[in-house]
Amino acid sequence: MKKIKTVDAIGHILCHDITRIAPGKFKGRAFKKGHVVKEEDIEVLLSMGKDNLYVWEKIDGLVHENDAAVVLKDLTAGENLEFSEIKEGKIDFIANTDGLLKVDVDALLNLNLIDDIVLSTLHNNFVVKKGLKVAGTRVIPLLIDEQKLIEAKEVVKNKKIVDVIKFKPKKVAIVTTGNEIYHKRIVDKFGPVIKEKVEKFGCQVIGQAICSDDKAMIKNAINDFINQGAELICCTGGMSVDPDDVTPTAIKESGAEIVTYGAPILPGAMFLLAYNKDIPIMGIPGCAMYNKTTVFDVILPRVLIDEKLTKLDIVKYGHGGLCMSCEVCTYPSCNFAKI
């Protein structure tokens, strides 16, 4: 700590709080310990009778919390983010678009293992709206050892830990199966549900085919939609293991490669994911027709950022993949399917 003239204090760090008293108007802290004195502060400080200030002596190898927070922000923040004002070594990361939050969980863990550094995020794969705070970084001490920032750079390397990926709306086709619907014994209620869910993401439904429980008819409907330019195909009905439920077989025989038939997500265990080249095909179980949130709501946002999912991606949902079926659904702001 050293005493210097206030007029010479620009860029220096205050060692203590400074209280301001304006009779009948204000009494409280005007400047906080750790504040970096700016040019516009000088006149205010002088008007408060502060001709001299006690400031930290600049020491090589130590970085002020605010400067360090900027380093961490630049190191970890990726796409489609804006930032709060720096305050007390803290910066908030805010989504500047609707999209899907992607967090490099392993890099996040390794960064937080470094003493005096904090980066906190929402869950990976969280559906976010523009303006939502998705992460925050903070430096714990007022002055941090520069070596820790160097260590942070070595941990993160060229990767970014936090990104918001914009959704890419797709042309969606619905293939609805079932003799009872095909022969008009009952009214299809699945198509409207799928249409509502995909349109919330800006997708366009280019058509719906109603098929009987006939493999060839289902297979042909899938391929016809691919030829029409469909970028996502949602197959509804016929997804159980009953002998007359042939939708999974028809999807496979259409030329698609099955990623998984079955998912550790409840509701939604009979979910199927396949790809015909790069076109995702989802076999959606009946639960999606009457449960507010299911496997379809979990997987759809990832498909809509062009993430090509693997079986491992699906299997990871086993931990947390049980929906509590709350009376008032708050998804995605709940524990369901967070990985």
TrEMBL record:
One of its GO terms (biological process) is Mo-molybdopterin cofactor biosynthetic process. The keyword Magnesium applies. InterPro entries: MoaB/Mog-like_dom_sf, MoaB/Mog_dom, MoeA-like. It catalyses: adenylyl-molybdopterin + molybdate = Mo-molybdopterin + AMP + H(+). Pathway: Cofactor biosynthesis; molybdopterin biosynthesis. Pfam families: MoCF_biosynth. One of its GO terms (molecular function) is metal ion binding. It comes from the Bacteria. Keywords: Magnesium, Metal-binding, Molybdenum, Molybdenum cofactor biosynthesis, Transferase. Its cofactor is Mg(2+). Its EC number is 2.10.1.1. GO terms for cellular component: cytosol. CDD domains: MoeA_like (cd03522). Belongs to the MoeA family. Catalyzes the insertion of molybdate into adenylated molybdopterin with the concomitant release of AMP. This is Molybdopterin molybdenumtransferase. It comes from Romboutsia lituseburensis DSM 797.
